[in-house]
């Protein structure tokens, strides 16, 4: 069967690639004037930047891909796969909508597996001086999926909700921004409990005991306020204060409470222009992580705590110097970072970027940075909602995250980016199966986190896009990843320190492709394909191969007028079986139909 699936995958890629060879012509369509339109802000996802996005030289413009009326986060997967080998996120529950000058929008869709999607937003104020908007998004599912390892089905439940209010006031020399949001996510740990680390369990084997019915609840409350100077001001400044409160309802089981995490964050920046084309400045951030432990979990008389959550702080200072010419930009700087606690460390990384227009509409670029990854409860939940709720992992140190490439829009309607990158991280972590407690009262199938892994990642890729007069767009992207990993010198098992490890769960090769066609003005059809290969899972002392992520989705949308539209989405039309995390199967073929209303 895998051979058949691979043939299907190759056929899809070949078809998309063949279409992409059509001769390019000038895109003469005009853009809508949205100068006074304010995007309704939803959840900000601080993920790894797409390698194709280099924002320093606007002359090299990527062909604009006009969004469908509705682009929803489908539930063919338990969590949307984040491409470019960043860790897989816990679900981007927000929706990109092609806004017009109406003040509000509403969309609702329903489908198989009891998948439900809903979005509602409204611009209360929308002027040059003041913008105020309110928004709410909902995603839920409640259907049975089948394990890949044994012949059993399990119900996968999810109820994601996020809402917020955002305000911005533009003064003559600065902008005041503030906002608040609340998130509620209910889900069950439906993954296969691992009773023993056996790579090939019998098809007749029954599911070991674990609580896979109780809905865990993760709640997020966040508020922020900040000021920022106008762009290109002689003296630029930024000050943003925020507080995030994150909590789980349950700990080891529904009978146990979990810690609550509070995050105080300050982002600041100050810079000054001189010499006409130069700027010097200092950016920085400070975070303090505070944990409130459940009653009765504190250690007594020198005993070890039931679980380990220490308060700690992290800080980053980034001095820089920036200069630009007619067709080039250079930024030279460094990141100096520190975090406190039992694992306190100092570290430094480069903070440099450069780009130069080497030919007409062709840019050679380089970026090199690094950062501290706090690996807080909130961070981990955003990556994988099924992560074990009672485990705190060591912060990761990203010493280098570099990329170099060349991108060009020299041909009308055609754009390409060829790039390579290298990333060095200490104390990295990966999600791995853990042994179940063997008790139906405990969350025995939650994903474990294997910490203290030092990794190096080399990636090479290319991204091609072509558009023709808004009639169709084609995109094709491929990325090859080579990982090296070893257990750090702080790894708990001293016998494994310094020995080879693997980047468990990470794909070796990724292919992303898409075709959008608009045969008539109000009708559009989109075909999107993703292939991720070469993943492995760690089962005790052995590694097992995971099925490829091989997904083809089809979306059709029709707008009756500027107010009302409908869409139909078919997910996983190749009927593939795969997991994002070992033991967590994803939905096979699913369908959804919905409406979109602008008002």
In angstroms, what is the radius of gyration? Answer: 25 Å
Principal-axis shape equals globular
Which H/E pattern describes the elements? HEEEEEEEEEEEEEEHEEEEEEEEEEEEEE
- Biggest sheet, in brief? 22 strands, antiparallel, barrel
Instruction: Please indicate the percent range of residues in DSSP E strands (runs of 2 or more).
Output: over 45%
| Uncertain ranges | 1-61, 63-100, 302-306
Number of distinct helices: 2
Helical proportion, percent range: under 10%
Number of strands: 28
User: What value does the average pLDDT take?
Assistant: 82
The first-to-last residue Cα distance is 49 Å
Structure classification:
mainly beta
Describe what this molecule looks like in 3D:
There is one protein chain. Helix content is 4%, strand content 52%. With 599 residues, the protein is mainly beta. The strands form 3 sheets. The chain has a 22-stranded antiparallel β-barrel. The radius of gyration is 25 Å and the shape is globular.
């Amino acid at each position: 069967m895998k051979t058949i699936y691979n043939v299907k995958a190759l056929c899809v890629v070949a078809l998309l690639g063949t279409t992409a060879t059509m001769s390019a012509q000038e895109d003469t369509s005009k853009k809508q004037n949205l100068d006074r339109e304010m995007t309704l802000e939803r959840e900000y996802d601080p993920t790894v930047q797409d390698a194709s996005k280099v924002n320093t030289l606007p002359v090299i413009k990527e062909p604009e891909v006009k969004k469908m009326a509705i682009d929803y986060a489908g539930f063919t997967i338990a969590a949307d796969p984040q491409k470019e080998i960043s860790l897989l996120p816990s679900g981007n529950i927000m929706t990109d909508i092609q806004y017009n000058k109406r003040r509000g929008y509403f969309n609702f869709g329903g489908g198989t597996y009891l998948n439900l999607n809903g979005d509602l937003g409204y611009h209360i104020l929308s002027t040059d001086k003041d913008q105020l908007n309110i928004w709410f998004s909902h995603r839920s599912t409640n259907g049975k999926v089948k394990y890949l390892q044994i012949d059993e089905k399990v119900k996968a439940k999810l109820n994601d909700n996020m809402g917020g209010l955002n305000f911005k006031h533009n003064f003559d020399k600065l902008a005041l921004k503030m906002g608040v949001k609340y998130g509620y996510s209910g889900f069950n740990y439906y993954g296969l409990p691992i009773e023993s680390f056996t790579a090939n369990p019998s098809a007749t084997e029954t599911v070991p005991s674990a609580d896979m019915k109780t809905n865990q609840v993760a709640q997020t409350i966040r508020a922020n306020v900040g000021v920022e100077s106008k762009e290109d001001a002689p003296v630029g400044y930024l000050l943003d204060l925020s507080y995030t409160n994150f909590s789980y309802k349950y700990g080891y089981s529904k009978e146990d409470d979990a810690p609550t995490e509070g995050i105080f964050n300050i982002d600041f920046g100050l810079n000054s222009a001189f010499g006409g084309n130069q700027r010097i400045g200092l950016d920085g951030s400070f975070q303090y992580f505070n944990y409130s432990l459940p009653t009765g979990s504190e250690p007594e008389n020198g005993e070890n705590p039931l679980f380990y959550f220490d308060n700690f702080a992290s800080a980053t200072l980034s001095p820089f110097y920036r200069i630009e010419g007619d067709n080039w930009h250079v930024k030279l700087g460094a990141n100096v970072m520190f975090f406190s606690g039992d694992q306190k460390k100092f570290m430094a990384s480069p903070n440099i970027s450069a780009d130069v227009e080497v030919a007409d509409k062709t840019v050679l670029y380089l970026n090199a940075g690094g950062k501290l990854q706090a690996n807080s409860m909130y961070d981990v939940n955003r990556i994988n909602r099924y992560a074990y709720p009672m485990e705190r992992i060591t912060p990761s140190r990203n010493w280098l995250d570099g990329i170099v490439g060349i991108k060009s829009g020299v041909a009308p309607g055609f754009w390409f980016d060829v790039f390579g990158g290298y990333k060095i991280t200490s104390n990295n972590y990966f999600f791995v199966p853990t042994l179940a407690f063997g008790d139906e009262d405990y969350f025995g199938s939650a994903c474990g986190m294997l910490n203290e892994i030092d990794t190096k990642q080399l990636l090479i890729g290319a991204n091609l896009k072509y558009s023709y007069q808004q009639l169709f767009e084609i995109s094709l992207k491929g990325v090859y990843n080579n990982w090296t990993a070893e257990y750090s010198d702080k790894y708990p098992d001293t016998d494994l320190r310094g020995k080879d490890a693997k980047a468990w769960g990470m794909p070796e090769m990724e292919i992303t492709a898409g075709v959008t066609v608009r045969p008539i003005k109000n009708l559009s059809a989109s075909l999107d394909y993703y292939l991720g290969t070469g993943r492995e899972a760690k089962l005790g002392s052995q590694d097992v191969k995971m099925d490829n992520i091989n997904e083809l989705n089809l979306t059709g949308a029709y707008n009756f007028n500027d107010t009302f539209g409908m869409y139909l989405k078919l997910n996983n039309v190749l009927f593939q079986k795969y997991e994002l995390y070992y033991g967590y199967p994803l939905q096979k073929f699913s369908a959804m139909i919905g409406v979109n209303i602008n008002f």
